[in-house]
Every structure is written in structure tokens, then in C-alpha cells.
Amino acid sequence: MTILTFIPAALVLAPSHFTAAVLFAVFASVVFAITQRSGFRDQFRYGLYCFAMFVGGVFVAGWLMLLLRR
Amino acid sequence: MANSSPVKANQASQATVMAVVAPAVGWMIPGAGHLIQRRWIRGLLLMASIGTMFILGLLMEGHVYKPNGGDILDILGFVGDVGAGGLYVVSRAMDWGQAAIAHATADYGTKYIIVAGLLNFISMADAYHIAIGKKQ
Lengths: 70, 136
Known about the structure:
heterodimer; A: 70 residues; mainly alpha; 71% helix; 0% strand; flat; B: 6 helices
């Protein structure tokens, strides 16, 4: 029995690489911010920092792969 | 002064019990380790983030690893998955995440499920630190 047994095929997600990476960055940043900092202000700033690093890393890795491919 | 010692001893014993209970509950239900310590917003955000990540992983047809003693990456995949606690137990009980991978982004689903478990390990450690008073 797979999860497809319970949900319509239309609900199976096949996001683009970029969408998947951004969603990953959002959830991981929230958890990192809450667990690694105390106080709302510090947590908010650290969450934004982690998100920027994750998404920035995606762009850097993308450009590196393009350059390596050439 | 005479009354303060029993009160302190009682608080210490509650902290000791909470130091065991909070990570255990947090493992079974992501974020619940914070909720039972009245960290409502943090608990709900952790529950939403980790739970959504795990469910999105399943919806992307990610693979849920079974206990295994084979390839090191498969063993590590299982260790990551099992961190999601109750979500992992339900997935295994329902035999979800065992379908053949049909598209490229299903691999993202597998990573989502593993990372949801790993993030829950961090969440459990945070619940423990709150319970022993190391963090507010």
C-alpha cells in the first residue's frame, strides 16, 4: 500500500528544483532560528540569515555547476 | 528558609522529570516537547515546519527507509527518518514511502523526510535545554 492509495494523483507533488530548495530553506530556517537563538528579535534575524544562506547557496551551486559543465 | 528546601527539591525533581519527558514527547510528536513546557508559539512553529516537511516529502513520493544493515547511506537514511518519531512510525505502519521512484524530484522527497527527522533531533535537544533551564 503506498500513499498514492489514499490521495488523488493530482496531489502528488513534483516541484521544480528551485521550488523544492526554497521550501526546504523555509522550514529548515524556522527550526534553526527557534533552536539556535533566544528572544524573538534574535530568532527572527537568524532565521532570515539562514534562509538567505540557503537560497544564496542554491544560486552559487547553480552557477558553479553551469561553469563546470562548460 | 526551612520551607525553601522542600520547594527547591520539588522544582529540581520536576525539572529532572521534564528533562526526560520533554525530549521523549518531542520525538513522538514534533514540537510537543515545547508545547508541554508552555512554549506555545515555538512548539507550533516546530510542529508545522517539521510536520509539513515530512508530509511534503511523502507527497513527493520520497523513500522511507526501513531498519537495515546494508549500505552506509541506507543506514544513515534510516537514522535520519527515525528522528521524525510518530510520523515515521505511522508511515511505516501504513507502508508509505515504498513506491518506486517515478520522477527526478522524488529524490527531494527522500531528503525532505530525512531532514525532517534530523531537525526533530535538534528540536528534542532544544526541549531538553529548556527543561534543564539552560535556555528560556
